[in-house]
UniProtKB/TrEMBL annotation:
Belongs to the class-II aminoacyl-tRNA synthetase family. Type-1 seryl-tRNA synthetase subfamily. This is Serine--tRNA ligase. It is an enzyme of class 6 (ligase). It catalyses: tRNA(Sec) + L-serine + ATP = L-seryl-tRNA(Sec) + AMP + diphosphate + H(+); tRNA(Ser) + L-serine + ATP = L-seryl-tRNA(Ser) + AMP + diphosphate + H(+). Homodimer. The tRNA molecule binds across the dimer. The gene is serS. Residues 43-53 have a biased composition (Basic and acidic residues).
Amino acid sequence: MIGRQFLRENPETVRAALEQKGVEDVDLDRVLAVDEEWRELKQRGDDLRHERNQISSEIGDLKAEGDDEAAEEAIERSQELKAELEDVEGRADELEAELEAALLEIPQIPDDDVPIGEDESENVERRREGFDDLRTLPEEVVPHYDLGEDLEILDFQRGAKVTGGGFYFTKGDGARLEHALIQFMMDIHREQGYMDVFPPIPVNSRSMVGTGQFPKFTEDAYRIGGANEEPWDDDDLWLCPTAEVPVTNMYRDEILLDDDLPLKLQAYTPNFRREAGEHGTETRGIVRVHQFNKVEMVNFVRPDESEARFEGLVDEAEEVLRRLELPYRILEMCTGDLGFTQRKKYDLEVWAPGDEMEEGPEEGGRWLEVSSVSNFGAFQARRAGLRFRPERHESADYLHTLNGSGLAIPRVMVAILEYYQNDDGTVTVPEALRPYMGGTEVIEGHDPVGESAVGAGKRD
């Protein structure tokens, strides 16, 4: 969240951020009024407490002097002050709770150099990589959802049968490819100085608040043991929507030492999100699903190293695509597409040539976001109580958090199945992945299983 002092000193900057990020349900004037009244009550409480302490010290002196009448008047005044102080503190507590809840609804302030724009159409393409030496593709590239079923490595019908829409099976070499990508990515990030973390998958509401998923985005989460629209407590549990949540909250309400920073952590998790977008070609297959695997990189850094670490994090995510030799581009998000918690964000979008989409590259196909690299400044740190102590004798300060996917596995699989497919319907395994797949060079597919395959004439 933003700091109270920043809000008091920069209300118009906050107002502009609300407009730029399209947040319309925050009454900023009300928040400022609550803060002002709260500060007045805190001052009044301090004055009352000071006066009561003075009178309390006088009562003993008056009794010692034998002035019982004055002592009784002082006692009565002390009781009046106590009652008034209780009223003032009670009202101040109510206002502070309202203020804290309101601050959780105010988005991050964008960096000054973030492009101004209303929506994703005004994001800025920074560069493209890997298009100078493209491999030869089939005359017509088969979309991954058809190719995956033809090769018997993707199974959407049985995924829907077992769980529901938005869930799927990978099978055989499809499952091997998914496992290979996870280990491949984690090995790269270990080279880059990351420490592995294997976090719990259920996360509590307090953790979701800490990283900014709650209270605004409860409708996208999978709740354990309750309906999303029902009130929730800090210790209610939700399925992990991204490893950003458990890993960032590992050190919640703790103070790290300066020597600990920068702290670079990576985690593989399955992730669960209810939001699955619109139906149709753009979301068909494994592009937008309710459960997906992802490797996440989380960084804790000193505030003065935040900007440089952001650029380094982008490069670390790119390294996966470079080694897989997949063409991609980098987009900088404009203010209207920046997100609630980010102050700056780049998206890495891989090229998937199987489906023709509007605003795709001139080579055809479409872009698929495989990583969002975000700088949160101290926004998450304030929510989660993440601090560091520059020197042991100095007071603790909020650190900065950053994260980026390294990468989202299903969409990388889409790009591989479409970009590396061959005229005969097979898929060449990227050279960098072959050691992770036991030396397999080509995915040739598998025979279908069951009577339904025989009845359909697919098996002899």
